[in-house]
Amino acid sequence: MADQSIVGALVLGLIEGLTEFIPVSSTAHVLLAGHFMGFRSPGNTFAVLIQLGAILAILLVYFQKLLQIALALPHSTQARRFVLTVLLAFLPAAIIGALAHDFIKSVLFETPMLICVMLIVGGFILLTVDKMSLRPRYTDITQYPAGLAFKIGLFQCLAMIPGTSRSGATIVGALLMGTDKRSAAEFSFFLAMPTMLGAFVLDLYKNRNALSFDDAGIIAIGFVAAFVTALLVVRSLLDFVSSRGFAPFAYWRILVGTAGLIGLLVFG
């Protein structure tokens, strides 16, 4: 990555931060943009490592709430129960991600056509679910049953196919199982913390020999850009979803996926 463009790293970092927590697939956007910009990294490690900026952004936004939960753990059954539900939801992705990591990175991440198709398919699914007249039974993430959390975690595993979207898969799964839109998006935030951190650590370990000190500058640029833009998105997304729903993201997915397919067919 040492010879990569600083501008390219900045652009990809901005894309990562803007798209990580909305249901449009940040991985798809970063990989497609990198493909057409000619930006390459060993094992597509750059796309995963700059996610640390987005992780820190959500930790900062939810720092006070996380601190309250941590302080309440010794004496609050509700706090312990909530942490358990998040970890339970994280478990399927942790197991499958560890077992299928090499296949995901070497095959799925290297297939731009698949990414574009999944963007379009996911867009139509999100649009359909957003327009369904679903009656929510769960509106408070701290009251999600363990079984519901685990099922949402199973939906999250679909996001291992680039273009599906981690947040999109978890939100769709949550909505279909009786949550409201705002709490579905918020639970996706909390589930992102262990999931993204786990992916970051695993990818860093797997590619430790492929990285060099010269890569640090490029990664740092992408990291800072992702952090700043993700901070803005996380602070505004819940209110946006509550008033507008997920249809705008669905249309955007279809637009980007279609444009990507046309670009691949024309330019290769």
From TrEMBL:
<dbReference type="GO" id="GO:0005886">
    <property type="term" value="C:plasma membrane"/>
</dbReference>
<feature type="transmembrane region" description="Helical">
    <location>
        <begin position="107"/>
        <end position="129"/>
    </location>
</feature>
<keyword id="KW-0378">Hydrolase</keyword>
<comment type="similarity">
    <text>Belongs to the UppP family.</text>
</comment>
<protein>
    <recommendedName>
        <fullName>Undecaprenyl-diphosphatase</fullName>
        <ecNumber>3.6.1.27</ecNumber>
    </recommendedName>
</protein>
<keyword id="KW-0133">Cell shape</keyword>
<dbReference type="GO" id="GO:0008360">
    <property type="term" value="P:regulation of cell shape"/>
</dbReference>
<feature type="transmembrane region" description="Helical">
    <location>
        <begin position="43"/>
        <end position="62"/>
    </location>
</feature>
<keyword id="KW-0961">Cell wall biogenesis/degradation</keyword>
<dbReference type="InterPro" id="IPR003824">
    <property type="entry name" value="UppP"/>
</dbReference>
<dbReference type="GO" id="GO:0071555">
    <property type="term" value="P:cell wall organization"/>
</dbReference>
<dbReference type="GO" id="GO:0050380">
    <property type="term" value="F:undecaprenyl-diphosphatase activity"/>
</dbReference>
<keyword id="KW-0472">Membrane</keyword>
<keyword id="KW-0046">Antibiotic resistance</keyword>
<dbReference type="GO" id="GO:0046677">
    <property type="term" value="P:response to antibiotic"/>
</dbReference>
<keyword id="KW-1003">Cell membrane</keyword>
<comment type="function">
    <text>Catalyzes the dephosphorylation of undecaprenyl diphosphate (UPP). Confers resistance to bacitracin.</text>
</comment>
<keyword id="KW-1133">Transmembrane helix</keyword>
<keyword id="KW-0573">Peptidoglycan synthesis</keyword>
<keyword id="KW-0812">Transmembrane</keyword>
<dbReference type="Pfam" id="PF02673">
    <property type="entry name" value="BacA"/>
</dbReference>
<feature type="transmembrane region" description="Helical">
    <location>
        <begin position="217"/>
        <end position="238"/>
    </location>
</feature>
<dbReference type="GO" id="GO:0009252">
    <property type="term" value="P:peptidoglycan biosynthetic process"/>
</dbReference>
<feature type="transmembrane region" description="Helical">
    <location>
        <begin position="82"/>
        <end position="101"/>
    </location>
</feature>
<feature type="transmembrane region" description="Helical">
    <location>
        <begin position="250"/>
        <end position="267"/>
    </location>
</feature>
<feature type="transmembrane region" description="Helical">
    <location>
        <begin position="187"/>
        <end position="205"/>
    </location>
</feature>
